């Protein structure tokens, strides 16, 4: 995706992405900070800040790609069999990981924080936000950008997986493992199929099942 860019162009490209990321955080925080100040209770809707920042990330990243003449959603036409295989593998992965987490009573601070944010939210809003918007934004960043930084695919694979894992804020090795495995699944899907859309689909399926589990658990 970035293979036609020179080394200098790639560095500038990444700088654009980093700046855009911080701008989105500021804008989302500012908007909802003002809204919360105007509300009687003064409560800050952190979940909506998360969703808005991811929407802005999608907008900025897509436009940065367009600036370099790259259509991020233009990849090969996916066959129905490929789509079904990705859905099935992603579902099996999520169910298996969920079983292990529940069996050993494991939890991550990132997941706990997210569940607190989602308390009292409508299930449709949760699914649109966490199972559609967030996966698309994260795949644009971690697979669209970080998985295409260098000419060496192995290095790109490692960078993509590690950045995805670290950005989810694991505080110990137990919290590191689930996100590391998810990073392998999504990056593996992208590298094996060559399709960013299928990587997004794998992420969407995983998050969709996780959100359903959260909703029915509560």
TrEMBL record:
Q: GO molecular function, one example?
A: metallopeptidase activity
Q: Which PANTHER family match?
A: CAAX AMINO TERMINAL PROTEASE FAMILY PROTEIN (PTHR36435:SF1), SLR1288 PROTEIN (PTHR36435)
Protein species of origin? Streptobacillus felis
Q: Can you supply a Gene Ontology BP term from the record?
A: proteolysis
| Name the UniProt record assigns to this protein | CPBP family intramembrane metalloprotease
Q: Where are the transmembrane segments?
A: 12-35, 47-68, 80-103, 123-142, 154-170, 198-216
**CAAX prenyl protease 2/Lysostaphin resistance protein A-like domain: residues covered:** 123-209
**What are the alphabetically sorted keywords of the record?**
Hydrolase, Membrane, Metalloprotease, Protease, Transmembrane, Transmembrane helix
Xref: InterPro entries: CAAX_protease, Rce1/LyrA-like_dom
Under the heading Pfam families, the entry gives: Rce1-like (PF02517)
């Amino acid at each position: 995706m970035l293979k036609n860019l020179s080394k200098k162009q790639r560095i500038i490209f990444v700088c654009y992405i980093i700046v855009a990321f911080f701008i989105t955080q500021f804008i989302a925080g500012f908007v909802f900070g003002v809204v919360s100040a105007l509300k009687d209770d003064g409560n800050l809707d952190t979940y909506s800040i998360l969703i808005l920042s991811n929407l802005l990330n999608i907008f900025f990243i897509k436009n940065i790609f367009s600036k370099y003449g790259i259509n991020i959603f233009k990849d090969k036409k996916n066959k129905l069999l490929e789509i079904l295989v990705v859905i099935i593998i992603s579902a099996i992965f999520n169910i298996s990981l969920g079983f292990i987490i529940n069996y050993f009573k494991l939890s991550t601070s990132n997941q706990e924080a997210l569940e607190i944010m989602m308390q009292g939210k409508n299930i449709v809003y949760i699914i649109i936000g966490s199972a559609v918007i967030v996966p698309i934004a994260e795949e644009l960043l971690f697979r669209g950008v970080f998985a295409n930084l260098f000419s060496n695919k192995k290095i790109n694979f490692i960078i993509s997986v590690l950045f995805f894992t670290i950005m989810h804020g694991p505080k110990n090795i137990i919290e590191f493992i689930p996100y590391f495995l998810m990073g392998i699944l999504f990056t593996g899907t992208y590298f094996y199929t060559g399709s960013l859309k299928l990587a997004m689909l794998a992420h969407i399926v995983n998050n969709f099942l996780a959100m359903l589990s959260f909703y029915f658990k509560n």
